[in-house]
Amino acid sequence: MRITRIENQQRRPGRKNIYVDGQFLAGVSAETLLRLGLRTGDEIGPEKVREITRLEEYLRAKSAALRLLSVRPRTVSEIRSRLLEKELPGNDIDTVIAELSASRLLDDQEFARTYIRDALAHRPAGEALLRRKLLLLGVARETADEAIRETLGVVDARAEAARAAHSYLRRAKRAGGDADENRKLRARLVAFLGRRGFSWSVIEPVVREALSSPEEDAQ
Length: 219
Description:
- This protein is mainly alpha-helical.
- The protein folds into 4 domains: 1-44; 58-104; 108-152; 157-217.
- The protein contains 11 helices and 3 strands; from the N terminus they run E-E-E-H-H-H-H-H-H-H-H-H-H-H.
- Strands 1-2-3 form a 3-stranded antiparallel β-sheet.
């Protein structure tokens, strides 16, 4: 068999159609053509066709992973799961993940640090909640713990909890209802801070101070 024509695909720039002995063989990426050095007039046998198929599957996996990363940072687990959903070969997925990890485009440790910083910038959160969310995203527990120690080491957990408490109390008092009933309000505030991942050793003094704060009484 011989390649008789290579032409651009009209609807998909960057992809080419290969014709062998006047018959359509396959659509491939421009990268596949370059890597395999395919040109019009080249002889092509079954082994070369298999090589084209294998390379196309790998490049499809790599392209899919890069598209996912262009939207937002991802964990290794997220990338693997999404590529498996596309029914891509496992060995290609492993290769893509290894390459992206080597180039630091995939880095669970950096992902965890960035995730924690972004989460705290939007809403106060405690260690337990941050750990739980990182684990759900596929970050290994020891990686999550290390990122939490490193990132929260410079964060005042009690100040973060106090910020969350005062914000909650302002919303609760605007909403009316039981907001003025101190016992019920205290229970709701404790539960809220617990859901935000703060430990009891942080919650207890923060709730006591928040409920006795002149600032909250004046709201």
